[in-house]
Specification:
The chain is built from three helices and no strands. The chain has 86 residues and is an all-alpha fold. The protein is rod-shaped, with a radius of gyration of 32 Å. The model has no long low-confidence stretch (mean pLDDT 87).
């Protein structure tokens, strides 16, 4: 099919250079570039699957307040260390 397309000067220059480098026609380079661009959007990446691990949490430990628990444990450790210095 014949059609008229206006290319930016830098793009036309790159396509002409590619045609010379590959020793194929300008028309073939344009068709290949358009196909590659259109096909790039159709590749479906595999969904990311996160591997889960058992944390070995004791029954009754509520992890929704894990930062509070960590802070409390650090506070207890700091108090123990200060008492040992006395």
């Amino acid at each position: 099919m014949r059609t008229t397309v206006t290319l930016d000067a830098d793009l036309a220059s790159r396509l002409k250079e590619l045609a010379r480098h590959r020793r194929i026609s300008f028309k073939s380079v344009i068709n290949a570039a358009i196909r590659a661009g259109l096909d790039a959007g159709t590749d479906r990446a595999r969904p990311y699957l996160e591997k889960t691990r058992d944390l070995g949490v004791q029954p009754g430990v509520d992890l929704t307040k894990a930062l509070q628990l960590a802070t409390a444990l650090e506070d207890e450790q700091a108090i123990d260390e200060l008492e040992k210095r006395k």
